[in-house]
């Protein structure tokens, strides 16, 4: 595990960079000064008019990891038009459609972390 301390006191645990045409996406797993884990999703692109980079960031905190990852995968599957042939196996069953039934809070043993590769194109 890579641990790099930043100026604001947070520690970077893992960092990934994804180049997608003129955009760069970053996925950073961090640890704050109180020991809480969180993920920062960042998008950086160049502003053509000003020649300056523009950055957007989303912070996802540990208690929301399971909900956000499940919703993201479901959304990708619903709109992918065959880009992803099947749901990546993350070690548990993730429904392809949202269910109207009562939801229970995910337990630590229910959540496993995995990864998969996506091929990004410049069609936009």
Helices and strands, with pairings:
Blueprint (H helix, E strand, L loop, with lengths): L3 E2 L5 E10 L2 E9 L5 E11 L4 E10 L3 H15 L45
Structural summary, described in words:
The chain has 124 residues and is mainly beta. It has one domain: Nuclear Transport Factor 2, Chain: A (Roll), CATH 3.10.450. Helix content is 12%, strand content 34%. It has a five-stranded antiparallel sheet with strand order 1-2-3-4-5, with no helix packed on it. It starts with a strand and ends in a 45-residue tail after the last helix.
Q: Under the CATH scheme, which architecture would be assigned?
A: Roll
Instruction: Report, as a whole number of angstroms, the end-to-end distance.
Output: 35 Å
CATH class type: Alpha Beta
Contiguous uncertain segments of 5+ residues? 94-103
Percent of residues in beta strands? 25-35%
Radius of gyration: 17 Å
Task: Jot down its keywords.
124 residues; mainly beta; Nuclear Transport Factor 2, Chain: A; five-stranded antiparallel β-sheet; 1 helix; 5 strands
Question: What's this entry about, in short?
Answer:
The protein has 124 residues and is mainly β. It has one helix at residues 65-79, and strands spanning 4-5, 11-20, 23-31, 37-47, 52-61. It has one domain: Nuclear Transport Factor 2, Chain: A (Roll).
